[in-house]
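Example 5.3 — Solute carrier family 10 member 1
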Amino acid sequence: MNLINSSIDRVLIDNDGGLSGNSSMSNTTTFRAMNMTINFLSLAIVFITMISLGCTMEISKIKAHILKPKVLQMDPIKAVTVLICGCCPGGTLSNIFSLIVKGDMNLSIVMTTCSTFAALGLMPLLLCILCQGFPGLQKAVPYVGIVTTILCTLLASTIGILINHYKPKYSLIVKKTGLWILLISSITLFILSAYVVKDVLWMIVMADLLTAAALMPLIGFTLGYVLSVICKLSPQCSRTVSMETGFQNIQLCTAILKVAFPAQVIGPMFLFPLIYVAFQCSEAFLMALCFTSYRTLKPPAGDKDTNKYADAKQEEEKKQLKQNQQWSAEEDYSRDEE
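Solution (predicted structure tokens):
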């Protein structure tokens, strides 16, 4: 239809330029009338076609697809467990891996705090909309746990900010000590958790659950980075947003499952957060490893914010050194005069 309209427009132009008098006006009017008729018929055909297609659809099925999308064909308990994990805000792990990939820690802490604040209202709303087969599930949201997470994050971050501001020479020691404590304690807790659940862990090793646990954080990491690049954020900020969108607070998920479902109902699905966090950390670790390898092979010229900060710091150090040398020269001159 567009090709026909373009041809008619071309004919109109040719006629306007090549004919004159009553004949030209008559032909131009005819072609314009044909153009309008074809445009009207095109719209009418599309409209009628869509009406015909709409006659094959049912409101109940449309509602079912929107409210209960079926991708992995999970049973209700599996589906609601995965949904609860997906509805949780970001957690401390996103801050840790943002540090590992040389992200913007200021942005990371702000995003974690904002997403946790938003979870106070959005988690009950999402659970109410997406988990309609489980009435009252939104009441199981651990508000106390969410507020505690916010307070702990803000308090710990404030202490670190104060140390970095007033005692900057100790900030690097505190950071390295904290990371080593975190690494050792995380490995210990993972080994202990695996030992405790080793007899029942195999019960949730199913293809659909493993697929969901692998795809959810991967999609979050990818979308976060791609959208950041589209919004023209710096590489450092893009890596930070990627970590923040890919990680969920698994402690909150575990708390909701514990409160909302008795043990005989939830069964081995209570261990799904453990599988989920394992995939989160594994994928993030692989990304961090790739990033570290890339930085080793090629200097991070794209990190403009980091380079600007490093240049400014280097310039400040040069000024301070020059000033110290000037003071020293003045002192030597004063001694010589005496």
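Remark. Residues 10-21 have pLDDT under 50 and may be disordered.
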